[in-house]
Design goal:
Blueprint (H helix, E strand, L loop, with lengths): L1 E7 L4 E7 L2 E8 L13 H17 L8 E6 L13 E2 L4 H6 L2 E4 L6 E5 L2 E3 L14 E3 L2 H11 L1 H4 L4 E5 L5 E6 L2 E6 L4 H10 L15 H14 L1 H14 L4 H22 L8 E5 L2 H14 L5 E4 L7 H15 L1
Parallel strand pairs: 1-4, 4-7, 5-8, 10-13, 13-14
Antiparallel strand pairs: 1-2, 2-3, 6-7, 8-9, 10-11, 11-12
């Protein structure tokens, strides 16, 4: 069986051509739902279609030879390609696989399977006075299904909180192979906005790769003590009035931006019963959130995991979902 799986996020998309469990080809595009707004609200689908055609041409394949096309992530959102309602937690992979929404799209000219996001919400209408009780993700859920399969020993008989850094850095809660809850937060987009569109652009790098733990901890302390507005400006102060390096300034800003995420984890009632906190992403985030967990006084073990070479968490999750559908 040949599948094309498209993992589409806020700012980037990846296309995978897989035959059974083997990945044959991968394409990365710098386009996501952030580009899919008026007046060019069809840009995402047209770019994905072009990349899909090019991928098949490179492999000497025709569209009719592809057994299925599937998309997950922000492609299922309001600003994506086909909006699909969220599935409520708790949810396991069997139910998730059962709920794939099939929709014929204009560019692809055939039915595409949309693997939708999940939601954690009370059984009441959302209003201003209760909006903080609502949480949702699109894309992280399929990543976590892949993670739980490949790192079974980390999750076996444990209550886990999984921090998933990205454009939006969400926390997902898992137990007994089920996703049981969500804490929705900003993340990479917030850092990018500060580093790209404010005066801090002159003081920090867009994608830090090296960390100074002391500076991350300082960012945490300033955010807690002074509030985020003052804490953010101190990034500029470090540049103007100290001889600290860009590594220090980058690390400090990462500490400020991500303090709210670790605080949101600590404040959640379920955090009291956790057995492990898992940080799923690049190694630099293991350092950032490991440091912030110490600053926040979290008493549970913290483990970092990275996607295996040539794969992604989302791809692993997709292949696991396809296996589940085949077994049914």
């Amino acid at each position: 069986m040949k599948y094309v799986y498209i993992d589409s996020g806020t700012t980037n998309s990846r296309l995978y051509l897989a035959e059974d469990k083997k990945v044959v080809s991968v394409r990365m595009l710098g386009v996501g739902t952030v580009d899919n707004v008026a007046p060019d609200s069809r840009k995402l689908e047209s770019c994905l279609w072009e990349a899909y055609e090019e991928m098949l041409q490179e492999q000497g394949l025709a569209d009719c030879e592809i057994d299925g096309i599937y998309m997950s992530g922000m492609a299922t959102s309001k600003n994506g390609i086909c909006e699909v309602d969220f599935l409520p937690v708790p949810i396991d992979i069997k139910r998730y696989a059962d709920e794939i929404h099939m929709h014929k799209t204009e560019c692809f000219g055939r039915e595409v399977g949309f693997l939708t996001g999940i939601v954690d919400r009370p059984g009441v209408e959302g209003k201003l006075d209760n909006v903080e009780l609502f949480h949702n993700v699109r894309g992280e859920e399929i990543e976590l299904f892949g993670i739980m399969e490949e790192w079974e020993e980390v999750f076996c008989q444990k209550k886990a909180a999984v921090i998933m850094p990205g454009s939006h850095t969400h926390i997902l809660y898992a137990e007994d192979r089920k996703i049981t809850g969500i804490t929705s937060c900003m993340g990479g987009e917030m850092y990018k906005a500060m580093a790209e569109d404010t005066i801090l652009k002159a003081s920090v790098d867009l994608r830090p790769q090296q960390l100074c733990r002391e500076a991350v901890a300082k960012g945490y302390c300033m955010t807690v003590e002074k509030g985020i507005n003052r804490a953010l400006y101190i990034t500029r102060t470090l540049d103007l009035f100290t001889g600290e390096s860009r590594i220090v300034r980058n690390s400090y800003l990462e500490g400020v931006v991500n303090t709210g995420i670790i605080t949101a984890l600590k404040d959640r009632e379920t955090a009291k019963d956790l057995d492990v906190v898992v940080i799923a992403g690049d190694r630099v985030y293991h350092e950032i959130f490991g440091c912030l967990a110490e600053c926040a006084g979290l008493s549970v073990p913290v483990e970092g995991i990275e996607a295996k070479p040539g794969r992604s968490f989302a791809l692993s999750g997709f292949l696991r979902v396809m296996q589940e559908r085949t077994n049914q």
